[in-house]
Fold each of these.
Amino acid sequence: MRYFLSLVAAVLSLFLGSPPAIAAAPHSFPLGGVNLTLYCQLTFTPEWVAKVLGTTATDWRCVGPGHGPSHIKQISVRDACRQQYNRVDLIAYASSSDPGSWKCYRPDGAPRANPLGGVDLSRWCKDTFGGHYKAKLFGSTAGSWWCVESDGPLNQKQISVEDACRKQYDRQDLTAFAVWTDPYSWNCYPPSRGHGGFPRLAPGGVMTR
């Protein structure tokens, strides 16, 4: 099956991540979409395919024949972009809530604008699942954040970074963006308005106290 989506992404493993990812503003200029199944086939074997195992942009995985954790592997959307377009300077962006929104950008094509600020994921976990929950990182990408119980079994719960942004700033029009390779780069952005109003992915946005 051919997965050449206008946009696409990845995250999940034993601990499966689901939080957010990255997002591209509608008026910036991407090179194009990314074929994640091709990446899976070239990285593993031709039998592997890309599948979305959730509802967010970070829920894409390479899935191989058979069953069990060893048949599910993480996807590097950035590497998929660089491999597909044969350019080592490309960056992958997607909208957190849209699994099909991954696109490949040149560094100079990245969105520009100021975020409202970072996002407190532990606060969202507590408000959503109870005061004994906190945010914990189970990987090295922006999509590797999970809500877990502070004491006792991990009992992992998925995080919606976009919802965390909207509740933290009490605005329903916000979008969450991050640099895929930086788990701490999540920031909250208002809608872009006019030329030049595109979000720029700034580091250091995630708070997990």
Note: DSSP finds four helices and 13 strands in the chain.
Amino acid sequence: MHVFSLEKKIRMRRKILIPPISPAKAKRRTIVLDLDDTLTVLGDHRHATLPCYCMKAVFDRAVFHTHRRYLKEFLVFAADRFELILWTAGTKGYADVAVQKIFETVGRSDVFDHVIARDPAWFNISETSWYDKTLEQLGRPIERVIMFENAPVVVPMSNCVMVQDLLFRMREGPKTVEAAEDATLENAKYLLERWDEELDAAAFLKREASLGYLTAETFRQIQTNRPLAGYSLSILPVKPKAVAASKL
């Protein structure tokens, strides 16, 4: 009990990473998005059909940033309905360039209310531990926050939707899915459309898993290999009847 109490006090002393929510958006819930391998992917090759930008200004060589299918539609939808936060383990210089390229794809520069980049206030890696993204550090009511992430680093995981790493070619079960056919962000939009105001985030995600829209899975914490319960979103298109089922 003493150890738990001490850990809790340490968490409570962690720095809040962003300003309070703006009065104009005070009634909105908060969506947090990871960047690399969730919204975008870095690679040595340019994708043939998806939005793709050269990041030579950051890496001093031809490295390409590919944007996930449906990124524009998803961000426009989310920005118009939620407070939207981008949280990346990348450096500020990298994040600044990546965000500008996202703005080019979306066609507007107001989609993110805040961008959190690598900072000692939250980012720390050692031989025995790995960084985490503790949602309490946002200073928002935790029951009003959902994060989309590709790695099991979110605390608490009950408020996280895990997505498959963006690759040019992905697999789900026996099926192979090309990046140009990836339905992840389309499914994420449908999911958020179903988030009822009266349901807190964890209860909502639990309900969606019980309906089969999300998959309840056990992930492994990086470094410690500790099991973490969470939810994942499919890369395959959602069937319309599943969307309707959540409204019962």
Note: The mean pLDDT is 90.
